[in-house]
């Protein structure tokens, strides 16, 4: 296995989390349901949101799979790998669910359900009810569902590493690399997604772990491909060959998505079959975009920079805190009836500033570091 660090994958991980923050800022403006919304949602925001909607989370699982494989190679054992992943994921998850997340459901209850209690009263009285309030499950992990799913997937990987002999794992990896070699990298994962879509019978992701089987089948695939890219880096040869074609396919598929969305927005509702091509085009766009982005990272970003290590460390603390900042600041903007453009600029500035403060303060205090996903000094 090649142990040389791939800086392009580091930059892709940093960019993917940065995009996630921008996406959640966009949720304040788009007509879709969310914790807090601008008074007059903007329909045109649906287009840039859908441009990333089909691949942003799958890309996060792919880069996480790659990073997990690199960590396993560094630690050298499934037990050490499982302990390391559990400490780095479960401790911040618990801290986030108890301390960071509660303002989010409180704002949603206040703005959308007429909840009258203060945040403190909600935190101490209603948040830990282990039930529902106005249809909202409490307590909750909200956007940290990704951490839960990632921990489960890494524990599955640790179990395979512990129970399957290395020789067998090697043959499986070799076979998968042959299957995904060349154009198979474009076709095979997409066929898997289409099969899961057909078999899921309209399943809507719940992010509740136990009732989200189709979502697990959807996300486990990019996690596995990311792992395979690390242990069989020859796959980057196929990426280099096909990423341009993948980019063209992704743009074309999004054209279909955008056209159907425009028809829906104009009230020109196509026949019932329009939903099926919309969903299929999103899946095609999603996987093709991922291949293209990996190729771009491999071709143009596989080089180090003095700030790379710091940014790579900062993305997890940013992820933990960013949505709470967006929801709370969005609540104040809603109360002040701030217009869309200044609201976006304020949200962007407040989120970036708040994330940096959360990271800078947390990394400088030893006992806080594990709570925000950083290693102890």
Write the layout of secondary structure elements.
Layout: H1 7-26, H2 46-53, H3 56-75, H4 78-100, H5 103-113, H6 119-126, E1 131-133, E2 136-138, H7 145-163, H8 166-179, H9 184-200, H10 213-231, H11 235-265, H12 275-300, H13 308-336, H14 340-364
Antiparallel strand pairs: 1-2
Characterise the protein shown here.
It is a single chain. By secondary structure, this protein is mainly α. It has one domain. The chain is built from 14 helices and two strands, in the order H-H-H-H-H-H-E-E-H-H-H-H-H-H-H-H. It has a two-stranded antiparallel ribbon with strand order 1-2. The longest helix is centred in the middle third of the chain and has 31 residues. The relative contact order is 0.15.
Written as H for each helix and E for each strand, in order along the chain, the element string is HHHHHHEEHHHHHHHH
Count the E strands: 2
State the distance separating the first and last CA atoms: 29 Å
pLDDT averaged residue by residue: 96
Large-scale geometry: globular
| Main beta-sheet strand count, sense and barrel state | 2 strands, antiparallel
Radius of gyration: 21 Å
Strand content: under 5%
Strand order of the largest sheet: 1-2
């Amino acid at each position: 296995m090649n142990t040389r660090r791939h800086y392009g994958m580091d930059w892709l991980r940093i960019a993917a989390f940065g995009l996630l923050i921008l996406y959640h800022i966009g949720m304040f403006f788009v007509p879709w349901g969310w914790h807090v919304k601008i008074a007059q949602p903007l329909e045109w925001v649906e287009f840039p949101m859908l441009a990333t909607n089909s691949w942003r989370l799958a890309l996060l699982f792919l880069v996480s799979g790659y990073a997990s494989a690199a960590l396993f190679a560094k630690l050298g054992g499934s037990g050490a790998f499982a302990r390391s992943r559990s400490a780095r994921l479960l401790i911040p998850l618990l801290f986030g669910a108890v301390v960071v997340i509660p303002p989010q459901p409180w704002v949603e209850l206040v703005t959308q359900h007429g909840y009258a209690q203060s945040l403190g009263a909600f935190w101490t009285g209603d948040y830990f009810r282990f039930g529902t309030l106005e249809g909202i499950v409490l307590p909750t992990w909200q956007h940290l569902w990704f951490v839960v799913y990632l921990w489960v997937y890494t524990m599955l990987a640790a179990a395979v590493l512990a129970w399957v002999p290395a020789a067998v794992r090697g043959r499986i990896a070799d076979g998968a690399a042959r299957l995904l070699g060349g154009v198979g990298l474009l076709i095979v994962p997409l066929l898997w997604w289409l099969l899961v879509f057909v078999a899921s019978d309209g399943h809507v992701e719940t992010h509740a772990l136990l009732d989200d089987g189709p979502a697990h089948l959807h996300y486990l695939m990019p996690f596995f491909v990311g792992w395979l890219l690390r242990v069989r880096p020859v796959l980057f040869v196929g990426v280099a060959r096909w990423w341009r074609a993948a980019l063209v396919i992704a743009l074309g598929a999004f054209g279909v998505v955008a056209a159907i969305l425009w028809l829906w927005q104009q009230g020109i509702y196509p026949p019932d079959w329009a939903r099926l091509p919309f969903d299929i085009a999103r899946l095609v766009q999603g996987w093709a975009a991922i291949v293209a982005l990996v190729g771009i990272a491999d071709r143009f970003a596989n080089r180090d920079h003095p700030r790379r290590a710091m940014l790579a460390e900062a993305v997890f603390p940013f992820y933990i805190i960013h949505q709470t900042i967006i929801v709370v600041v969005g609540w104040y903007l809603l109360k002040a009836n701030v217009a869309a453009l200044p609201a976006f600029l304020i949200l962007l500035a407040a989120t970036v500033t708040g994330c940096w403060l959360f990271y800078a303060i947390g990394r400088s205090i030893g006992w806080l570091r594990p709570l925000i996903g950083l290693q102890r000094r």
